[in-house]
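Sorry, can you check?
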Amino acid sequence: MELEGTVRDGVIVLDRVEELKDGDRVRVTVIDSERPKSTFGERYAKFIGSIEGPSDLADQHEHYRLGTPKR
């Protein structure tokens, strides 16, 4: 069964509630949102440059992460 509705003042208002009984479990999926879509980079841009590490970290990440010999 699939039902649709709208969020009003933080409450989900279903179009047809007569099909649901007390105790029925439901899953909510947002199908249309007017929130601006952001990329991974936009969401985490505030962290760019916040970690200081060795200058060769990108090339030698296995050495620093796993302790393998440097290449």
Notes: The two ends are 57 Å apart (CA to CA). The chain has a mean pLDDT of 85. The helical segments are 40-43, 61-66. The longest strand covers residues 5-8.
